C-alpha cells in the first residue's frame, strides 16, 4: 500500500478513527494488526518475512540478557544478525537476476506471474531488518533492556508509518512511545496533517514532475549532450530529495496522528557546507545507523588517521552496496567515502575550545556540485552511461549560445512547465532555509487566520491538481 494511493487515504482514516474509539488497552493490538494488514496488502507472503525477523530478534534478545559470559552473548548476537544479513545479501545480489527475468518476460521468452517477482524482492525489507538488528546490538551493548512483551516489540518492528522506508527507529526512543497509553491530542494531530501535506507536495508536485524529464534524459542518455545533463542532474538531485524527504514527512506526520514522535530524517541537506555536514543532514536515521553499527565498530576515528580513512571508505562502500549490488551504487558510495577522506585533510579536527570555522558560500556551492556529481552514478542505468554523461557535460561549451540553445531544444519544456518547476524549486529552497532556524509549520500555524487558511487551501489545491490521474507512483527508496 503506497502513501500516495487512494487506498491509503481510506486505510489511514479508518485506522485513525478506530484507534481512538477503542479502549486504550486494546489500541496496540489494533495498531499491530493494521500494520501487518498495511504490509501484507503488497503481498501476503511479506508478512511471513516480517514475522520471522520479529520472532528471531525478540527471542535472541531475551537469550542475550540470560547468556553468561561474553562468548555466549556474542554467539546469540551472531545467530540474530547473520540470518538477516544473509537474507539481505540474497535480495541484493538477486536483484540483477530479477532484472534479467523481467527483460525476458518483456521479450516474451518467459512466462512468470509478476507477483512471483514481488515475493523475491520484498518492499522495505532493508529498513525493518536494520531496525531489528539495531535493537539486538543495543541489547548486546546494554543500551536497552530486552523487551518482554512480544506484541509491543512486534509493533516496534512493524509500525506502518515507518515500515517501508523509515525513518529507522531506535528502541530507546520508539518502544516507550508505542507502549504508552495515548489520548487524542488535537495540536499534535493537526501538526501531523500539515506535515503530511508538505510531504505530499514534495512528492506529487516536485519529485514526480521532475522525474518525467530526468527519466527521459537518463534512460536515453546517448541521444543527448552538454548542458542538458547538468540541468537534469540538478533536477534529479531535487527529485530524489523531495521523493524521500516527502516520504519521511508523510511518515512522521502520520505517526503524529497516533501521538508518536519519529526521528527527524532530513534537515536541509543541500544547504550543507561540506560532505560531512551533508551526511549529518541527509537520511539521518540511516547514516547514523551506519555510523553506530558499522563505522564505530570498525574503530571509527580512534585508531589513527590511516585507519580512520579506511573505516570511512568501508562504511560508504557498505552504504553503496545497501542501495544495490550494481557497480554504479558502489562507485557512488566510493565517491562519498573519498570525499570524506579528502575533507579530513582539508578540514582537520577542530581543537577543544577553538572558535568554529567560518563558512563561505563557495563551500556550499562546491558541496552541492560534488553531491550532484555522485548522483550521476546513482541514477545512471550503467557505469557506461554514467561515463558517457560525465564526458559530455561540457560538450560545445566553447560556443555558449549554442550550448544553451541545444539544451533548451532537447528538454522541450513549455514555459508554463518551466515556470512551475522554478516556482517549486524556489519554494523548497525558502522552506529549507527558514527551517534551519524556525519551525515553518509551527510558524504558519500561528499566522493570521486568513493567511494561514489561504496557504492551506492553495497547498491542497496544488496537490489535488498534480494527483488528478489517480496513479500512485512508487517512492524511490522503496527499491532499497
Q: Any chance you could write out the topology, listing elements then pairs?
A:
Elements: H1 6-21, H2 27-40, H3 44-66, H4 70-106, H5 114-120, H6 125-141, H7 150-158, H8 160-163, H9 171-179, H10 186-218, H11 227-256, H12 275-279, H13 284-298, H14 305-323, H15 327-346, H16 361-379, H17 383-391, H18 400-411, H19 415-435, H20 440-445, H21 449-466
Helix pairs in contact: 1-2, 2-3, 2-7, 3-4, 3-6, 3-7, 4-6, 7-9, 10-11, 10-19, 10-21, 11-16, 11-18, 13-14, 14-15, 15-16, 16-17
3D architecture notes:
The protein is mainly α. The protein is 71% helix and 0% strand. It contains 21 helices and no strands. α2 crosses α7, α3 runs antiparallel to α4 and α10 runs antiparallel to α11. It is globular and about 70 Å long. It starts with 5 loop residues before the first helix and ends in a 14-residue tail after the last helix. About 2% of the residues have low confidence.
The biggest sheet, with number of strands, parallel, antiparallel or mixed sense and barrel status, is: none
Order of helices and strands: HHHHHHHHHHHHHHHHHHHHH
Report the span from N to C terminus.
16 Å
With helices defined by DSSP (H or I, 4 residues minimum), what is the helix count?
21
Shape: globular
Question: Structural class, judged by helices and strands?
Answer: mainly alpha
Strand portion: under 5%
Helical content band: over 70%
Catalogue the unreliable spans: 112-119
Number of strands: 0
Determine the mean pLDDT. 85
CA radius of gyration is 23 Å
Amino acid at each position: 500500500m503506497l502513501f500516495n494511493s487512494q487506498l491509503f487515504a481510506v486505510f489511514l482514516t479508518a485506522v485513525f478513527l478506530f484507534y481512538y474509539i477503542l479502549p486504550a488497552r486494546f489500541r496496540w493490538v489494533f495498531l499491530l494488526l493494521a500494520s501487518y494488514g498495511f504490509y501484507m496488502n503488497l503481498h501476503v507472503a511479506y508478512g511471513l518475512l516480517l514475522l520471522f525477523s520479529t520472532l528471531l530478534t525478540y527471542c535472541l534478545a531475551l537469550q542475550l540478557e540470560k547468556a553468561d559470559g561474553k562468548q555466549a552473548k556474542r554467539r546469540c548476537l551472531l545467530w540474530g544478525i547473520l540470518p538477516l544479513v544473509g537474507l539481505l545479501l540474497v535480495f541484493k545480489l538477486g536483484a540483477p537476476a530479477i532484472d534479467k527475468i523481467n527483460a525476458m518476460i518483456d521479450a516474451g521468452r518467459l512466462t512468470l506471474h509478476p507477483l512471483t517477482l514481488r515475493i523475491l524482492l520484498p518492499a522495505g525489507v532493508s529498513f525493518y531488518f536494520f531496525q531489528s538488528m539495531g535493537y539486538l546490538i543495543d541489547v548486546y551493548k546494554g543500551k536497552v533492556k530486552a523487551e518482554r512483551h512480544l506484541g509491543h516489540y512486534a509493533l516496534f518492528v512493524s509500525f506502518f508509518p515507518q515500515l517501508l522506508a523509515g525513518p529507522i527507529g531506535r528502541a530507546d526512543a520508539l518502544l516507550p512511545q508505542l507502549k504508552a497509553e495515548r489520548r487524542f491530542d488535537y495540536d499534535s494531530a493537526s501538526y501531523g496533517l500539515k506535515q503530511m501535506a508538505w510531504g505530499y507536495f514534495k512528492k506529487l508536485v516536485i519529485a514526480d514532475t521532475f522525474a518525467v524529464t530526468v527519466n527521459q534524459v537518463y534512460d536515453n542518455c546517448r541521444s543527448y549532450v552538454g548542458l542538458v545533463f547538468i540541468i537534469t542532474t540538478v533536477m534529479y538531485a531535487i527529485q530524489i530529495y523531495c521523493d524521500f524527504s516527502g516520504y519521511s514527512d508523510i511518515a512522521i506526520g502520520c505517526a503524529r496522528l497516533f501521538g508518536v514522535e519519529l526521528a527527524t530524517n532530513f534537515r536541509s541537506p543541500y544547504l550543507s557546507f561540506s560532505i560531512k555536514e551533508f551526511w549529518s543532514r541527509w537520511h539521518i536515521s540511516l547514516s547514523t545507523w551506519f555510523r553506530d553499527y558499522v563505522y564505530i565498530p570498525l574503530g571509527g576515528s580512534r585508531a589513527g588517521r590511516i585507519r580512520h580513512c579506511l573505516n570511512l571508505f568501508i562504511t560508504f562502500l557498505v552504504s553503496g552496496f545497501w542501495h544495490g549490488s550494481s557497480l554504479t551504487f558502489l562507485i557512488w558510495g566510493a565517491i562519498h567515502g573519498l570525499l570524506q577522506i579528502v575533507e579530513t585533510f582539508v578540514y582537520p579536527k577542530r581543537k577543544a575550545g577553538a572558535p568554529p570555522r567560518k563558512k563561505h558560500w563557495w563551500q556550499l556551492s562546491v558541496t552541492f556540485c560534488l553531491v550532484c556529481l555522485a548522483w550521476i552514478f546513482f541514477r545512471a542505468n550503467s557505469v557506461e552511461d554514467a561515463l558517457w554523461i560525465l564526458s559530455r557535460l561540457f560538450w560545445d561549451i566553447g560556443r555558449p549560445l549554442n550550448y544553451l540553445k541545444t539544451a533548451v531544444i532537447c528538454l522541450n519544456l513549455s514555459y508554463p512547465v518551466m515556470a512551475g518547476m522554478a516556482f517549486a524549486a524556489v519554494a523548497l529552497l525558502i522552506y529549507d532555509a527558514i527551517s534551519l532556524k524556525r519551525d515553518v509549520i509551527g510558524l504558519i500555524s500561528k499566522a493570521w487566520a486568513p493567511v494561514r487558511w489561504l496557504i492551506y487551501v492553495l497547498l491542497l489545491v496544488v496537490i489535488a491538481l498534480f494527483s488528478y490521474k489517480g496513479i500512485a507512483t512508487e517512492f524511490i527508496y522503496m527499491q532499497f
